[in-house]
Design goal:
The complex is a heterodimer of chains A (about 290) and B (about 400). By secondary structure, chain A is mostly helical. Chain A has eleven helices and two strands. In chain A, strands 1-2 form a two-stranded antiparallel ribbon. In chain A, a hairpin with a 2-residue loop joins strand 1 and strand 2. In chain B, helix 3 (about 40-60) crosses helix 12 (about 295-315), helix 4 (about 75-85) runs parallel beside helix 5 and helix 6 packs across helix 7 (about 175-190). The longest helix of chain B is centred in the first third of the chain and has 20 residues, at about 40-60. Classes of the chains: A mainly alpha (about 290), B alpha/beta (about 400). Chains A and B meet through helix 1, helix 9 and helix 10 of A and helix 3, strand 7, helix 8, helix 9 and helix 10 of B.
Chain lengths: ~290, ~400
């Protein structure tokens, strides 16, 4: 019994982080209708931002994650203006090639700039766990989870309570109508893309206390990101968070009765079954 | 004796100008390594060692030119080797760190009859009956067996009897083969393996594995991992206050970053290793000065591989692949970087597998790795559960 509770707790904590990493991808798709294959590279960029903030400014990765958010936003917005803007109405193949190309450029750019070394941070809470009876609550997981949930709530408020959020949702629902109402949709596209990449970079920052960064760090998360987003419903913020927690819990609980090697097999069986019944994802499309 | 004489005569003949051609030409050697992608760090370390060996060779007047090919994935290996052989006319090839890349590359070197020396571990490399591939290191299952055996030996000397162990390994060719070695050795010794779990390469959450370890009564943990997973395993163990001896399976456990990432938690962690820099103090100091970190085993081993090949070409006195191949097979080289390989030499048996090398045990002391076992190679006494073992 305690083994089950332990895996549930671990799964929820890990899953919350998957959620915030994936929500950026969801946002970009929801607003720009583009599948950004390079999204996971912004996770890697966020991790590097957090690492440099830790190594040179002495900032805890959680604080560094906010810096990562800004850098991820700026870089994402720049990419959108320079490249993505031009292919918004292009055939899907052109969009795929652009974002896959961006993935390769960012990954190898990082290799040139930062070298191939693995970099890790050391934090005082990294090797601590809270003991609740037989249950161990990993402090780095807990900290990352709280940061992830807080950021998701902020994003939810931004999208639902502010003018900017309404403009983003309006653009996502009907670009021409939004334009007629005086919304600068080009600007909204740039902001939404930047916000999406910034959030994924933020996710990179918060996992830094337990994950090592290298130029290929994004690759480990790319498939998970897409699973989370599709499961939660492409374009939905809360869907991504819920999707993340579900993915985390499935992965974690599956290890109770299956070898850990097969945790993604279990995940994808559940995933495919879920899509057969709810092709729109579990939580519809709240952001659209 | 006769053979040695023949080699000497051949060498003398080549020096006396009978086949000046080979010596007038630059010896071109291909280096196939992953210099980008997931294994780039290891590939670059190997290149650093190779460059150091090249410096030494040039200082001795050898005219050697290296032609590099960056092969991050096995599927790029065949084309790269083909290009090196047919367009660059290399005499031989050194590489490729990852077993999967070496396996792919050696298919082409065998077909084109090009000698290749590798430091990859996988058993299959020299068990396919190929004639042109040489392995300067013992094979993966030997690493696994010794990883188990050395740990049991040291524990016994420290007065602890081991009945139950746990094995974690990443599920690539390397992890699977080495874990098989540990498993077999444990079975032979009548030691129960209470956990025997594979996990996928690139795992980001090891909590399920460590939860299982906490609930088990294993006395020693044998993780066979790359770098990120190695850090995760140690950190998560510390989180859950598990203080068992950890005996790593080379790879991630013997890179400088392991200690940088873990700090005090790296102290006393054991690992099996193909070689350690404390066997070659002079080269180790040069490496550290140049690259800022200690010389990893892949740098040492690939430096030895290059020196062995260049020496063999010199002995063969020609670039004829068959003669170079035979010279590599016959040469027993015990100086330069080869002296740093446990056993003190680079030399090959009938299958191309190293005839003299054996794995060693290293242990973390501060920012350094020291060799602690077997006794003839040790530079410091081993510590088990915090106590020095005599």
């Amino acid at each position: 019994m305690s083994a089950l509770i332990q895996t549930l707790v671990d799964g929820v904590l890990i899953g919350g982080v998957y959620g915030v990493i994936a929500v950026g991808l969801s946002l970009v798709f929801g607003v720009l209708k583009i599948v950004n294959f390079a999204q996971a590279e912004f996770l890697m960029i966020g991790m590097y931002a957090g690492w440099f903030a830790w190594a040179h400014l002495g900032l805890d990765p959680i604080v560094g994650a906010f810096l990562a958010l800004l850098i991820g936003f700026a870089l994402g917005a720049l990419c959108q203006r320079l490249f993505v803007q031009h292919i918004l109405n292009a055939p899907a193949v052109a969009q795929i090639f652009l974002t896959v190309g961006l993935l390769t450029v960012l990954e190898n750019g990082a290799l040139l700039l930062f070298g191939s070394d693995f970099r890790t941070v050391r934090t005082p809470y990294q090797t601590i766990a809270l003991e609740l009876g037989p249950i161990f609550l990993s402090v780095p997981y807990l900290v990352a989870f709280v940061a992830a949930v807080a950021m998701s709530v902020l994003l939810f408020l931004l999208l639902n309570r502010t003018w900017l959020g309404r403009a983003i949702r309006a653009t996502s629902q009907d670009r021409d109508a939004a334009c007629l109402f005086g919304i600068d949709t080009r600007l909204i596209y740039t902001i939404a893309f930047g916000l999406g990449t910034g959030l994924t970079a933020f996710g990179g920052g918060i996992i830094l206390s337990y994950a090592a960064v290298s130029p290929t760090a994004g690759a480990q998360f790319v498939v998970l990101m897409f699973t989370v987003v599709v499961l939660g419903g492409l374009g939905s913020v809360m869907g991504a968070l819920v999707g993340g927690v579900i993915v985390g819990v499935i992965q974690s609980v599956s290890t109770l009765f299956m070898p850990i090697q097969l945790q993604n097999l279990v995940l994808f069986i559940v995933f495919i079954t879920a899509l057969a019944f709810w092709p729109q994802g579990l939580l519809g499309r709240a952001a659209r | 004796m006769l053979r040695k004489l023949a080699i000497c005569l051949a060498a003398a003949a080549s020096l006396s100008g009978v086949s000046v051609q080979a010596h007038a030409e630059t010896v071109k050697i291909g280096v196939v390594l992953p210099l980008s992608g997931a294994n780039a760090q290891f590939g670059i370390n190997a290149r650093n060692g190779i460059e150091m060996a090249l410096e030494d060779l040039k200082a001795k007047g050898a005219d050697v030119k290296l032609v590099y090919a960056d092969v991050p994935e096995p599927n790029a290996a065949a084309a790269a080797v083909q290009r090196l052989v047919s367009r660059e006319n290399v005499v031989g090839i050194v590489g490729s760190f990852a077993s999967s890349i070496t396996l792919a590359a050696s298919e082409v070197t065998e077909r084109t009859e090009t000698p290749m020396i590798t430091h990859s571990f996988a058993d299959q490399i020299t068990s396919r009956g190929y004639r042109y591939i040489f392995q300067v290191t013992p094979k993966a299952t030997t690493f696994g067996e010794k990883q188990f055996q050395y740990a049991i030996d040291i524990a016994e000397k420290a007065g602890q009897k081991i009945d139950k162990i746990a094995i974690f390994y990443e599920d690539t060719a390397y992890g699977t083969a080495q874990a098989a070695g540990i498993r077999q050795a444990a079975k032979k010794a009548g030691v129960e393996v209470t956990i025997d779990d594979a996990y996928p390469l690139g795992i980001t959450d090891v909590a399920p594995l460590i939860n299982k370890l906490r609930r088990s009564d294993a006395q020693v943990v044998f993780p066979v991992s790359y770098f990120n997973d190695a850090l995760l395993i140690i950190r998560t163990m510390r989180q859950q206050k598990i203080d068992l001896p950890v005996v790593g399976g080379a790879a991630g456990y013997i890179v400088p970053d392991f200690q940088k990432g873990l700090g005090e938690y790296a102290e006393d962690v054991y690992s099996i290793a193909p070689a350690n820099y404390d066997a070659l103090p002079e080269q180790a100091a040069r490496y550290k000065e140049k690259y800022g970190v200690f010389m990893p085993h892949e740098a040492l081993m690939y430096a030895a591989a290059l020196e062995h090949m260049v020496e063999a070409v010199k002995i063969a006195g020609t670039t004829d692949p068959l003669k170079v191949r035979d010279a590599i097979a016959q040469l027993k080289k015990c100086d330069g970087f080869s002296a740093g390989i446990p056993g003190g030499c680079s030399a090959f048996g009938d299958t191309g597998l190293s005839a003299t090398a054996f794995p060693i045990f290293v242990q973390w002391r501060g920012e350094d790795l020291v060799t602690v076992y077997p006794a003839e190679t040790a530079t410091a006494p081993a510590r088990w559960a915090g106590k020095e073992v005599k």
